[in-house]
Amino acid sequence: MQTTTSRKLINLGTVAMLGVSIGLCAYWYHLGVFHDLNSMQGFLSGIGIVGPLVFIAIHIIQVVIPIIPGGISTAAGVLLFGPWAGFAYNYIGICIGSIINFWLARHYGVNFIHYVVSENTFEKYQHYTKDQTKFDWFFALAIIAPVAPDDVLCLMAGMTHMSFKKFFWIIILGKPITIAAYSWALVTGAHWLTQLL
């Protein structure tokens, strides 16, 4: 499969996921789940472990195949499951997805990366990999920064000589900071909006 074709399929997948999300929201609205946040959380509690497992699986998929913006799924976790459980589910899904990205890039190289990342984006970050020590520091700082393209950088890390052990600990220790920042911003923003309304 050509890289341009794969990216077109990813774009189609994004549109399809948007359609599925809209349809699911319409179905939930019909069930009365959206009457208030307590109704939504009550619905999720009623389906037990299935809700969290499906959410974590969706998070893993969106990290490996970027068909859902990461900020949206992170925000959804906090809204749907609350700040603590939402943080935990976001953390688990993102870490597993990031490790899968690293492994795929390490084993399949540039050809795989071009399937999911545009050539312009690849070239934009490739020059950071030329100096391993500098890349390691850059990668660690980027993982902590909430606005960095983490998924792309995890793929780039897989192409370098970074050890899996180092990558693992950067992800495990750095990701909570980013996720906590997103979660805090969401909770604060939601509280602010409720005050206005």
UniProtKB/TrEMBL annotation:
| Any one of the GO CC terms | plasma membrane
Transmembrane stretches, by residue range? 12-31, 43-65, 77-104, 137-155, 167-187
The membrane topology noted for this protein in its Swiss-Prot or TrEMBL record is:
Multi-pass membrane protein
**What are the record keywords, sorted?**
Cell membrane, Membrane, Transmembrane, Transmembrane helix
VTT domain residues are 68-183
Top-level taxon of the source organism: Bacteria
The listed locations are: Cell membrane
- First-listed, main subcellular location of the protein, grouped into a coarse class: membrane
Q: Does the record bear Membrane in its keywords?
A: yes
Q: Does the keyword Transmembrane helix apply?
A: yes
Question: What family is this?
Answer: Belongs to the TVP38/TMEM64 family.
Q: Which PANTHER family match?
A: GOLGI APPARATUS MEMBRANE PROTEIN TVP38-RELATED, TVP38_TMEM64 FAMILY MEMBRANE PROTEIN
Name the UniProt record assigns to this protein: TVP38/TMEM64 family membrane protein
